[in-house]
Every structure is written in C-alpha cells, then in structure tokens.
Input
Amino acid sequence: MINLTSRQSEIFEFIKKEIEINGYPPTRSEIAKVFGFKSPNAAEDHLKALKKKGVLNIVSGASRGISIVKEDLGIPVIGLVSAGGPILAQENIEKRIPSSQNILSHGVDFYLRVKGDSMIEAGILENDLIAVNKKTQIKKGSIVIARINDEVTVKTLKSISSDLVVLQPENSNYSNIEVNPKTEDLSFEGTCVGLLRDFS
Amino acid sequence: MINLTSRQSEIFEFIKKEIEINGYPPTRSEIAKVFGFKSPNAAEDHLKALKKKGVLNIVSGASRGISIVKEDLGIPVIGLVSAGGPILAQENIEKRIPSSQNILSHGVDFYLRVKGDSMIEAGILENDLIAVNKKTQIKKGSIVIARINDEVTVKTLKSISSDLVVLQPENSNYSNIEVNPKTEDLSFEGTCVGLLRDFS
DNA sequence: ATCATAACTGTAATTATATACAGTATTTAA
DNA sequence: TTAAATACTGTATATAATTACAGTTATGAT
Output
C-alpha cells in the first residue's frame, strides 16, 4: 500500500469507523461536516486520493458507494519449511486464516504446524498450530521458533549467551540442543504466543 | 427473533449479501430491480416489515441507511461452573469470543477453561480453552465434557454401556473414573473439537 | 524556478434516493 | 368473519448525494 498522508489516514480511519459503527459508509457531506470542511468537495478530493492510492473503491453515481479495499490475505499457516529460504516464503504457506478470526490476545505473524513430539510435555502435540509473533523479545524460558543451519525447530530457550545457546525439548526422551552461534547458523524466527488445536 | 416470511427472508438475505459483496447496503430501487418489483415502494414495505421484526435498522433520510441488527453475542467462554445449574448459565460465562473469530473448522458451542492437570498427557494444560461442540456424537475414544453429580470434568471416554461408563484421565497419576449412570447423575455436555492456548 | 501534490473554499447542476399516499389482491390470525 | 398483515403496483416529490468546474494556498520535488 502506498503511504497515505496523515490527513488521508484520518479520513480513511474515519470511513472505516463509520462503516463499523453504522453498517454503511459516510457521504461526502458527512465527512466534510466531521472534519469541518466547508465544502463537500474537500471530501471528494480526499476520496479520489484514497482511491488513487488503492485503499478505497468508489462506485461512481452510487450514494455512499465507498468500500474498503481489503488487501488482508490473512495470517499464513506454515507447514513444512523448505530449506534455504525465508520461513514465510510462498511455497511454505499451507493456507491462510483471516486475521479477523484471530482470537489470541497477542499479534500473530504466522502459524506454524508442529512436526514431531519433542514438545509434548509442554502440551504441544504433532499437528498443533503454534501462533508465532516475530517481534516479541526472545527471552529465557519462552518457547521459541529457532532456525539452526536451515532447520526450523520449536523449543524452550534454556539459556543464551554469545557463544552458547541451549534449546530444551519438552520431552524427556530428547536431549538439549546446544548451539554456538559463532560457528553455527542460528536465528530466531519468533516466539510462541499461542496454540491452536483442531480435532478434525 | 420473530419469524420472517419466506419472502422477507429472501430480501433479508439479499441485503446481507449485498453488504458482504459491495461493502454497503442496497437502495430501495436496487432491491426492487433484483426482485422484479415495479415500484421501489414494494422494497420500502419490506424494509419496514424487517425493521418491525427487529432484524434491520433503518436510519430515516439516509441513503442506504440500512444495517443488520446483530444479535450475535459470540461464543461464551465458561470459567468455573457453579453447581446446580446449566453449564451455559449466565453466571458461568467468563467472556464471549465473537463467533466471527472462530478459527476452528467444527462448530463451537462454547469454550471451557481447563482446571487441573488431569489431561496433560493429551496436551491439554491448565487454563487452556477447550472448544466444545454439544451435538457431536459422543463416542469411545473422544475427549468428552461430562457432568457427574454436578461436577464438570474433561476426560477421554474409554467405554460406555448402560451400567458402566469409564472416563480416563490423560495423566498417569490419576485413575479412571467409573460411573454407573443408573445410580449416579451423569450427563455429557459435549465433545472437545479443538483447543486454544493463549500465552499471555 | 516551476510543476505536481495536497488540502482545501465556493457554487451549482444532475441524478440518486427515501418515502408518502392511494390503491389492489391474497393470506393469516383472532 | 373480520381485521390485520403480506405483497405488491403506480405516482409523485422533497431532499440527499455525487461530482464537475473554477479557484486559493502551501509544500516538497525536479
């Protein structure tokens, strides 16, 4: 989306809010009134700009013929992660879940389908969907999505220092994974902020 | 909601669809055109009837001033279940999650907050939200929400016959619960169709 | 220095829309 | 059986709304 000016954002947000509240979009005059414009044409100009920038659809001739262009593809669900590319690469996306359907309190950047049983003692089973937030601060004790030499894994972060990172599976049959970030390729894709299991 | 006539339902569904598709409601003339009315007043009459029956809001004077009355309170989240009443009693409802936010593929009648650790080996932890469907056929092997003498419990249904129901915790520290439905008060509130965990 | 964009005022005309009133015919509930 | 509700036709009109055209002022980019 092309960047909107701050004024255009205000107008855009107002239109979205009106649709949310009233169930239908505002007219030019209603916009003008709220923003103190003395002419409905000021609103018209804004609508044209917003249309040009691709965030609104306007049906000519129709009263209140304004609609929001939704570019929201939804939150991607990542199945198998193919080697050598970013986790969010198109080929990894199994499906998308509309972000309007997000129940979790945290922001969810993507869902990752769990493979294996290494986390069963934390109540994370095979095929569960883990909700991942990319920006949450990685810290000791949290369940992290790590990438070690192109392998994606979900583990509890046990300790972290400049030359040793310890990742702990939550399954007594597995041992801790110790990684030296100086010699191995280690990155964190995000933190687990939720879990979704669908019995189907 | 008062029952709509079949014609009124058609009109109502059309209006909902139009809002979904266009982002704004239809005019009287648009309704009339689609249904083949020769007068926009036929649509006007229908709108008045739908308003009277409480399924539409109409803002007088506003073009396309039609909105859907939403009676959807959302899917209830049940916390502690107080004794002696139905599980869905008002006092048990912790909050509601808009049903539009339901990610799970099955119908979810309510969410139940899990107390205790009796199901941890099935990956169901304390404070998880279990998605419950009331109508799914109760069958051996599924995780059921049972009510024994006014106590609500989540367990795996191990076996079921007319004089013995065995409920199995998924935690080796607990033993099976055996109930005789003839002498004890046993009912099934539903089946677990999903799980939601929010790390917050 | 000039041009495009942004953010408006002001006027005005065409058309889109709501909605009242007067009917008709059929069906449904008291 | 009688009134109310349903489901329309047909006409008409006030007003709601879009939207073009002609300007002004300010700002940032080429």
